[in-house]
Amino acid sequence: MNDKPEGKDRQVTEITPQSEDFSAWYIDVVRRAELADYSPVKGCMVIRPYGYAIWELIQQALDRRIKETGHVNAYFPLFIPEGLLTKEAEHVEGFAPQVAYVTHGGGEKLEERLIVRPTSEAIIGTMYAKWIQSWRDLPVLINQWANVVRWEKVTRPFLRTTEFLWQEGHTAHETEAQAEEETLKILDLYKDTIESELAVPVLTGRKSESEKFAGALRTYSIEALMGDGRALQAGTSHNLGQNFARAFDITFQARDKSLQHVWGTSWGVTTRLIGAVVMVHGDDNGLMLPPRIAPYQVVIVPIPRGNWQQTVLPRARELRASLQTAGIRVTMDDRDTYTPGWKFAEWELRGVPLRLEIGPRDIEQSQVMLVRRDTREKLPTPVEGLARRVEELLAMIQASLFETALRFRDEHTTRTDSYEEFKRIMEGRPGFVVSLWCGSQKCETDIKTETQATIRNLPFRDPGQPISGSCIKCGQPAREVAYFAKAY
Amino acid sequence: MNDKPEGKDRQVTEITPQSEDFSAWYIDVVRRAELADYSPVKGCMVIRPYGYAIWELIQQALDRRIKETGHVNAYFPLFIPEGLLTKEAEHVEGFAPQVAYVTHGGGEKLEERLIVRPTSEAIIGTMYAKWIQSWRDLPVLINQWANVVRWEKVTRPFLRTTEFLWQEGHTAHETEAQAEEETLKILDLYKDTIESELAVPVLTGRKSESEKFAGALRTYSIEALMGDGRALQAGTSHNLGQNFARAFDITFQARDKSLQHVWGTSWGVTTRLIGAVVMVHGDDNGLMLPPRIAPYQVVIVPIPRGNWQQTVLPRARELRASLQTAGIRVTMDDRDTYTPGWKFAEWELRGVPLRLEIGPRDIEQSQVMLVRRDTREKLPTPVEGLARRVEELLAMIQASLFETALRFRDEHTTRTDSYEEFKRIMEGRPGFVVSLWCGSQKCETDIKTETQATIRNLPFRDPGQPISGSCIKCGQPAREVAYFAKAY
């Protein structure tokens, strides 16, 4: 990682307040909560166990949905012969500046350079051309969990790194309509996963021509709003049309016996989602994890009074066991080298949704103290029925985090027809601005140059309802409603 | 893949009999069952959905055990700066000839070449040096699921490919004894997983000096016997001693306040295990999958008689649902383009442990026909209590596959003190030969040159019981018992 080289190896002891420097706050939280660390490889991060455990929970939630909708996983080579990438003209133009080249292997110079995959359309398309013969072979619905490499000049853990982890779906269909249906089905699947598991509200819509995937017919995206009012693209789903099928010669014999090109889609979300979780829910005390993707949903802190190791600790262990039996992810911090106060701050920083304190007095009263990470509310709770109560609270926290994020987004979404107001908004912590757009790339570029705001996406709308109004920039008749924002 | 370039793109329609050409049989099964396919990248394979589903089941079984023993997952960069690899002298000597170099990225020549990881000791060691300060930070028990690249001249799907998937554990400990304990604990974990899930019996033991991991103190391995009498190394666990800790300066403040180097281990198993499953259990009809790692444990084939789509199919769907409810992995082949006979052969080829046939007469009699893949036994079975019966049969098949493989190994394991007999055995389909060895590398090398047999490993033995006898090769006093075999 090279965005803060001067601070690379300092120990993070305190977290910069969000209000002081959101970007420094983000890096501090990522490093201090041990989600990720800088590596000796420029632009590449190490995902530490706590961060990776979050990724595993996101993967499970997503993988289940991907399989429930009829997709299967597979694995394609990391390397792509240079000649393959160049087959789709727009695709190579989009990715060539970002690729890493392998030139030597096994002690010899390679005859043809290999590209480390930045995405796998080229290699997967080549295989589909072999596998697909007839309409009976369609649809092909394959997903891959993999690492990809895109050379980046400025990087930030999770948000933009040279290597990152992702899933990439690649499908082939008989008809254009089926490809479009798949593209939108996946967009909904992403929205559902990210809203219900990560508690991050997202806006769905279509990307403008200038922001679409290199080689796609149409790109759809989900966009989330971070705590500093900047947008983050959280996932994309591409209708590839027949572009890649033509480039890689993926044909099939249709029902009418004619030879046709398949209709393709591709779609992906990445470890960037972890960055979204940090920036949507975190506060000056650190991380705040939605229970569904929290590696630990409850941390038990035994209060060391008297001979606590004989009295409190055994009881704490029983509670841990009973919560685990109920399927709750629990850890216990029984280290004797730290005070309870230190532990409270530490586990808040790590974003554990619920803290369970238990001391001698609690045991006398057959209760424990539950403390919510989000509201910091203290809730004395009877041991009787504890697991059920914890489950209720976790569900409440999950819902509450989503509602809070949604409210923040609503409060930071402005509709305006005035370019003066548009520019004023973009100067502060802007959020989304909804405005009308003529559809020209010139206006899009001018707005970006003047305000740094880009079109995040164009929301779906009733095609029967025409747009009346004029472009926020040029005043010509508008053809689109657009979500604008400064973006990561 | 480049081992059979002439046959690369032929459609596999029939499977070469094992007795005719085991190697051709293997490739035919892998391709015809759609486990893997050749890719346009030399030495790299595509793991197709059916093969990848097997890998996912192996991963789950292994990952659960890795976590139950206190390990956590993380992710380290794909690339390693060349300078890091060279820090451990033996390590670089062992791996340098096999690495792929990235020389260009983002349109520029890199200042320092990057290596695509062949294994991650160097990059992980570098991070451990940052993270570990005190004995309180130990042990560090981290595992990674990743792709690695080792340039290979001769490749074969799953068994030896330039890129492969694996897990690699990397741990750091306070004492030598703890590192040794970890190394052996993992060896046992591998043995347990592979024997109970893959139904592949393995021999555990220590590698000879010449076969140990580049940079390790001691390497332990598990070795399995394939259907052609050749051995396959199925996993390794290395006690790294303090070699990497010294090379990467991984130190900690010990309990006595002195500064010491950590004691390390590393261990891994790969997608090669899928090749082992094919070659241990498969027969001339194709694949034979142990139920625990079979993507489909049962295939339902409705028998198309009369108006079967109105009568048989609804009943078949009910059975599928009830088996799925019981947690059994089921698929149904209701395609009307293939005959039942074709389907029977097809699903046998794909190794599904149980076939369930249901036709009009079965429905009348409230029964189904179950057919075992391993014994091909036909078992008329009442619908009443079907799920429980299927579970019983799957457990029986799992046990039976293991016992059959174990019997085969026992029948192909010979103890001999005569080098003449040793050489004779190695000429056919040899299996393991257990012989005494003086411990000299010269004898090991001479035996390999003359017979192609290598020391697979040195079984654990009671240190109190001295070895009496002489080396199979030189006749000098023996210091070790050794398992010899021709190996993949």
Task: Give me the secondary-structure topology.
Two copies of one chain form a homodimer.
Chain A (H helix, E strand, L loop, with lengths): L21 H11 L3 E3 L6 E3 L1 H20 L3 E2 L5 E3 H4 L3 H7 L4 E6 L2 E9 L4 H11 L8 E10 L13 E11 L2 H21 L6 E4 L11 E8 L5 E11 L1 H6 L2 E3 L5 E3 L1 E8 L1 H10 L16 E5 L5 H18 L4 E3 L7 H10 L4 E5 L1 H5 L2 E6 L5 E5 L3 H26 L1 E3 L3 H9 L4 E6 L3 H11 L2 E6 L20 E6 L3
Parallel strand pairs in A: 3-7, 15-16, 15-17, 20-21
Antiparallel strand pairs in A: 1-2, 4-6, 5-6, 7-8, 8-14, 9-10, 9-22, 10-11, 11-14, 12-13, 17-18, 18-19, 21-23, 22-23
Helix pairs in contact in A: 2-6
Largest interface: A-B, 58 and 58 residues
What is the residue-mean pLDDT of chain A, rounded to a whole number? 95
Whole-angstrom Rg of chain A: 25 Å
Indicate how many domains the architecture of chain A comprises. 3
Order of strands, widest sheet of chain A: 3-7-8-14-11-10-9-22-23-21-20
Look at the helices and sheets of chain A and give the structural class.
Answer: alpha+beta
Task: Sum up the overall morphology of chain A in one term.
Answer: globular
> Helix proportion of residues of chain A, in percent?
25-40%
Question: What is the CATH third-level topology name of the largest domain in chain A?
Answer: BirA Bifunctional Protein, domain 2
Helix count from the secondary structure assignment of chain A = 14
Span of the ends, CA to CA of chain A: 16 Å
Q: Total number of β-strand segments of chain A?
A: 23
Q: How much strand of chain A?
A: 25-35%
Largest sheet of chain A, in brief, is:
11 strands, mixed
Give the low-pLDDT segments of chain A. 1-8
The CATH architecture assignment of the largest domain in chain A turns out to be: 2-Layer Sandwich
* The CATH fourth-level homologous superfamily of the largest domain in chain A: Bira Bifunctional Protein, Domain 2
Oligomer: homodimer
CATH class of the largest domain in chain A: Alpha Beta
